Amino acid sequence: MGAAASQGDRRPPREVASAPIPTPYGEFQARAFDSPSGHVHLALVAGVIGDGGSVLTRLHSECLTGDALGSLRCDCGVQLRSALRTVAAEGRGVVLYLNGHEGRGIGLIDKLRAYVEQDAGADTVDANLRLGLHADLRDYGDAAAVLRALGVRSVRLLSNNPAKADGLEHNGIAVESLRALSTAAHRRNRAYLETKQARFGHLRPAGAGLDELPEASVDVGALLGPLRPRADRPAVVLKYAQTMDGRIATHTGDAKWISGEPERRVAHAMRAGCDAVLVGARTLLQDDPQLTVRMVPGASPLRVVLDSTLRTPLTAKVLSEDAATLLLCRPDADPARRRALAATGVMVRDVGGGPGGLRIPEVLGLLRSLGITSLLVEGGGRVITSILRAGAVDRVVVSVSPTIIGAGVDAVGPLGISRVSEGIRLVNRSVYLAGDDVLMGFDVERASGVPNR
Q1: Share of the chain above pLDDT 90, in %
Q2: I need a labelling partner for 70 at 20 to 30 A (CA). Which of 77, 204, 325, 334 fits?
Q3: Which CATH architecture has domain 220-445?
């Protein structure tokens, strides 16, 4: 990229403190720099900078809502964690946290006001403009000065934003390359990500689009569909993996792994696109799933378990701190078990019992009251059958593996259907290959012929 520009009379930030900070990704040296603007910038340095050439670098703009609170309106927290992991893995680099960049420089209060405009239909650019603000007020002079103070001469920049590279170049830091950071889109930030690409010229991650996974070339957004919630329940996507002969497990209950790794990455990206993921207690007891998005860069959803008698072990992976967990049980569930599970930090809520388990309409109504607008249901067979019988599914996604196992666990049990003409009709097909597996997505059609949305 281009040559450095003059710095003028800008007084450089001054280093005021330094201390090691251990993180889940590795240890960084945290070096604080006080700038004339009144902002304190934090450089997280991994390894030895040495001659300062070709340093893997991330300029991360402050985002309290995304970084600290985990807001799904943006992908900032996901990108920060991804950058820390990437730099730590290389063993040499800098993640520079730039304060004063909240809301692209408009500040926290005006960012919240801009959210109101976005909820009224404006994209993230027009929301700022409606408030009489600039679309982007960020300056990268301080960033370049801090990098120089660290001994950095040239960088390989971890960013989707070419303006950050231009800002460093303009202020004297050579940018050797721009490496995009991928994100598994959520329904709540999809428009935000699309606006950054369309109106700010942000890069699409190499080898994959906004909703695509390079290993599978699957449009996860199309698989999930538009995810339109209702007043009384979330939008519900039913997803399961089965063998060629229609089994989701062997006769012993074993289901690991029916699908291959590319398909499982798609499943994780689908989780990242929804507010919550739901399974039944039998699936939890048999498979001990974690229900996070470990295989893709994204935010893990709320984990919901239908556990009418609270059989969830205290050692279950869904009780880990990787994501929030909600256990739904009958009101008469053992109080001692309820207290023990609640002590782990999970939510435990009562739902009325019904035939074969909990009342599905009541389950979905409770989730909607908690702010859940999109729900991914992953099984097992009893839950799949119950939610289909309740007529509460908007979208069905089935993965078919090229495997035959004979007798085993059926994906769907009895639905009370005696005629083929009474069957649940699936429309608006989309089909993808994920490694050796075939993924098929359909909308559920009402008896009237109108898709079940």
Answers
A1: 62
A2: 204
A3: 3-Layer(aba) Sandwich (3.40)
